[in-house]
Each structure stands twice: as structure tokens, then as C-alpha cells.
Amino acid sequence: MIxxxxxxxxxxxxxxDDVCTRPxxxxxxxxxxFPLRAIIGRYVFGEQVRCGLKHFHTMHNHGYIVVAENGKExxxxxxxxxxxxxxxxxxxxxxxxxxxxxSVTYCLTRRSSPSHTGESY
Length: 121
Description:
With 121 residues, the protein is α+β, with helices and mostly antiparallel strands. It has one domain (2-112). The chain has helices at 16-20, 78-112, and strands at 2-6, 9-13, 36-50, 59-68, 73-76. Strands 2-1-3-4-5 form a 5-stranded antiparallel beta sheet. The longest helix has 35 residues, at 78-112. It is globular and about 45 Å long. Residues 116-121 have low confidence and may be disordered.
């Protein structure tokens, strides 16, 4: 499952190709030249994907979609994030996970309310 946060809210995509074809996505980001700006998504699924950090490219099953200071997006695993972005990544990851959980809880609460009209997140 892949969950991405946008200014319009959360959305889920089922296929990795949907992430790779996003405008601004790059499979080869230099973390030294372009520091982390934000985590915008999380993925967990069976097939392994290659980390998007230049010169690293470890295969992993779960990780995060990030935006760098240059506006480019890529995917990284938690270990890659910690190694290349240090404490900033760990703090940003905690904020993202907290905000994601709050958004999912809000959406589930709305869906179970009698006034819900069937919108999805």
C-alpha cells in the first residue's frame, strides 16, 4: 500500500509505477546536493523497490516518499533516511507518521458518521 499526502489530502495508489510517473519523481537523487524538505508519503508492500538515493540504491519493501529542497521527489527506506539525513529525517518521520495517523483516524471517523456522503480520502 502506498499513501501520499498532498494539499488536497491523502490518497492511496496500488502500483509502484504510479509513484515513479509522478511529476518531479527521480530514481536517482543526490542527498548531499539536495537536502530533505519533507516526507510526503509512505509505502509498504511485498515487492522490493530500489532506494532512490544516488550511489546507494538498496532494495527494500517499505519506506517513504520524500521531497528534497530542489522540489524533486524520490523514495527512501528508513535506514537510508537516517544515514543520509540524520536527526532531521527521524524527526520528520515522526511528524509524518503522527499526521498520517491523525488524518486516517479523522477520515475513518467521518466515514462512520451518519452524515457521510461516500467521499474517499
